[in-house]
Design a protein that fits this description.
binds ligand PBG; 10 strands; TIM Barrel; alpha/beta; 15% strand; globular; 11 helices; 334 residues
């Protein structure tokens, strides 16, 4: 018996011809399974305390550490581009062992949050990174114990204070990126107790100890020596990523995230299949830098590579994507 679709060579050729739906741009557009929208994009932004002009980040061409003035203009541009939100990171002038700048209402991240909220109005969601690493002199995401290890439960106390400080500054979504056990439950409890029950939490649930954060360390002038492998996930582990997603959902995360994106699309697809809350992905600094560097060398088509990289993350299941190209990509999608 002849297999369906395989009429003999002397007949008319194959019956099943997937190429029919690829024949014209209009047909391809009509049958596309994944669509991008500006509202699905979130722009991470850096704000540097004491800066008098924007400072370029050499490993992330096109990305800067903003001054408070240039931040306002960039937030207005992001709103005009129609993207869904911005995620703020602070680069403080002074750091100490407990990351005091993170909880100081006049600390750079809290100042930047107030400015961004005032500038953005209702046009987009102003989000803040809730982690101590930018603010600690040792560069770790939590506080240290007597042996120099990262103290999980003492760090949770600082996250609780940081969460309240960020909510008070007006942050509309707190991004918990420290990878301490119990961080979502702890910050949820702190916010609810302080009268901020309506401020939502984004759990960086499956955050891997990745080489692709390299350029970010320059962007925030990280003081880290060593690595974060005692708290961020081992890149070898898929089930553990799924477990972290489940835990953050159980602790009350309103949205969960997988990070980085491109090397963890399996983890992302698992999360998208199982999570009852939205699943986001973070296309991190190293993913940005690789494409920019290859494009600058003329080795790949920059625009196509950017579009394809973000499309792949959406196709794998991300409801929204944090990407340093958010505003530029939004301009192309239009
Ligand atoms: C931690 C944090 C990091 C990133 C976002 N939040 C760095 C880290 O975990 O070392 C990396 C983002 C990127 O590489 O673009 N506050």
């Amino acid at each position: 018996m002849t297999a369906p679709g395989a009429r003999g060579a002397r007949d008319a050729g194959p019956v099943l011809r997937p190429r029919r739906l690829r024949a014209t741009p209009a047909m391809r557009r009509l049958v596309a399974e994944t669509r991008q929208h500006a509202a699905d994009l979130v722009l991470p932004m850096f704000v540097r305390e004491g800066a008098s002009e924007p400072v370029p980040i050499s490993s992330m061409p096109g990305v800067v550490q903003h001054t408070t003035e240039s931040l306002k203009k960039a937030v207005a541009d992001a709103a005009a581009a129609g993207i869904g939100g911005i995620m703020l990171f602070g680069v403080p002038e002074h750091k100490d062992a407990i990351g005091s700048g993170a909880t100081d209402p006049d600390g750079i991240l809290n100042v930047a949050t107030r400015l961004a909220v005032a500038e953005a109005g209702d046009a987009l969601v102003v989000q803040t990174d809730l982690c101590l690493d930018e603010f600690t002199d040792h560069g770790h995401c939590g506080v240290l114990d007597a042996n120099g290890g990262v103290d999980n439960d003492a760090s949770l106390e600082r996250y609780r204070e940081m969460g309240v400080a960020q909510a008070e500054a007006g942050s509309q979504l707190l991004g918990l990126s420290g990878m301490m056990d119990g961080q979502v439950a702890a910050v949820r409890d702190a916010l609810d107790t302080a009268g901020h029950a309506n401020v939502p939490l984004l759990g960086y649930a499956a955050k891997y100890a990745s080489a692709f954060y390299g350029p970010f360390r320059e962007a925030v002038q990280s003081s880290l020596e060593g690595d974060r492998r005692s708290y961020q996930l081992d890149p070898a582990n898929r089930l553990e990523g799924a477990r972290e997603i489940d835990l953050d959902v159980a602790e009350g995360a309103d949205i969960v995230m997988v990070k980085p994106a491109m090397s963890y699309l399996d983890v992302l697809a698992d999360a998208a299949a199982s999570s009852p809350v939205p699943v986001w992905a973070y296309q991190v600094s190293g993913e940005y830098a690789m494409i920019e560097a290859a494009a600058a060398n003329g080795w790949i088509d920059r625009r196509r590579a950017i579009e394809e990289s973000v499309l792949g993350i959406r196709r794998a299941g991300a409801d929204a994507v944090l990407t340093y190209w958010a505003v530029e990509l939004a301009g192309w999608i239009r």
